[in-house]
């Protein structure tokens, strides 16, 4: 046998010839500890980044959003900190509005909530017969689509129920996106997985208590029991299930040995999923994405020092978050050519 054939036979199989999820030996020492890796490495930036290179596709009438608006709407109430941070911003912006005859506080609050949840806000002009502006109505961003023609928008509440708005009567406010300029995307997308994980942890713990897994154990009996004692224990355990469980069970074994009856818990092993750690970590991620101080959301501090002065935190939050959001909605004045959006000047805190 030639050296070339011998070397080819001793080579390891190439990664392309391995079946998926194969067990690959990392070191074959024949004696001692062997390490294994399961499957081939999966890159983080693979199929997910393909969406960043696609434009918003259209159906010859309107553009479809780059992300599911239905999914964003459902995730709004996934985490209490996620929804509470958005509601806090909405309420602070609505309270700072100086209503005008054309724009009510209710319509403005709806626009703000759409902008914070979906990244887009739409307002529709309502005109009189002379073409003069009467008022501005809030158009739900979840069902509003941007048309192919400039200034054209569509109302799409369901299949075959679409209606075209009158051209030039709908105005869009969008959060900027780095991949396209047709629709806006919300700022909290980087923390959306944390909000969903927070919801999953809560739902898992609820199911854990509802299905009675917290009472699971193995009754291991090796002692000597009289006739009928085992059947009596079995019947007593059956009666402890269902409503009114957590009952105490008395067992008397006169000739039994020490450790003849043992209870081996089996459900606690699966229940140790770091519930509090998951909740706290995901909460911090969501608050970091929304940039909301924890004391403004009613979070109880874990340390004795607390979170600091809530008044100073409110002032800083208003200056860094609410004031920039006010400038976003002032764009409507430029689009309409008149001051329909006005905000009251916030009193300065006393020195």
UniProtKB/TrEMBL annotation:
Q: Which Pfam families match?
A: Phage_portal
Q: Which InterPro entries match?
A: PBSX_Proteobac, Phage/GTA_portal, Phage_portal_PBSX
Q: Where is this region: Disordered?
A: 1-22
Q: Which family does it belong to?
A: Belongs to the phage portal family. PBSX subfamily.
Q: What is this protein called?
A: Phage portal protein
């Amino acid at each position: 046998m030639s050296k070339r054939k011998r070397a080819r036979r001793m080579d390891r199989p190439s990664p392309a010839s391995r079946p998926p999820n194969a067990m690959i030996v990392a070191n074959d020492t024949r004696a001692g500890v062997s390490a294994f890796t399961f499957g081939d490495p999966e890159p983080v930036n693979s199929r997910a980044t393909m969406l960043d290179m696609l434009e918003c596709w259209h159906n010859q009438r309107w553009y479809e959003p780059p992300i599911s608006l239905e999914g964003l709407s459902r995730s709004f109430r996934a985490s209490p900190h996620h929804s509470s941070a958005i509601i806090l911003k909405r309420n602070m912006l609505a309270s700072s509005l100086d209503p005008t005859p054309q724009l009510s506080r209710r319509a403005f609050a709806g626009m703000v909530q759409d902008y914070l949840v979906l990244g887009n806000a739409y307002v529709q002009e309502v005109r009189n017969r002379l073409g003069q502006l009467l008022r501005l109505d809030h158009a739900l961003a979840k069902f509003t689509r941007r048309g192919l023609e400039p200034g054209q928008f569509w109302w799409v509440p369901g299949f075959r129920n679409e209606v075209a708005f009158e051209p030039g009567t709908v105005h869009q406010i969008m959060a900027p996106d780095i991949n396209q300029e047709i629709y806006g995307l919300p700022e909290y997308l980087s923390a959306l997985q944390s909000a969903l994980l927070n919801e999953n942890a809560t739902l898992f713990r609820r199911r854990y208590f509802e299905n009675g897994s917290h009472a699971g154990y193995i009754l291991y009996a090796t002692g000597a029991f009289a006739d009928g004692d085992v059947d009596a224990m079995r019947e007593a355990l059956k009666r402890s299930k269902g409503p009114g469980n957590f009952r105490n069970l008395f067992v008397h074994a006169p000739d039994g040995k020490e450790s003849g009856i043992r209870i081996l818990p089996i459900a606690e092993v699966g229940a140790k999923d770091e519930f509090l750690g998951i909740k706290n970590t995901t909460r911090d991620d969501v608050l970091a994405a929304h940039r909301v101080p924890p004391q403004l959301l009613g979070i109880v501090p874990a340390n004795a020092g607390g979170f600091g002065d809530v008044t100073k935190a409110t002032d800083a939050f208003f200056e860094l978050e609410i004031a920039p959001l006010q400038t976003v909605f002032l764009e409507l004045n430029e689009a309409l050519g008149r001051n329909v959006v006005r905000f009251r000047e916030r009193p300065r805190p006393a020195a």
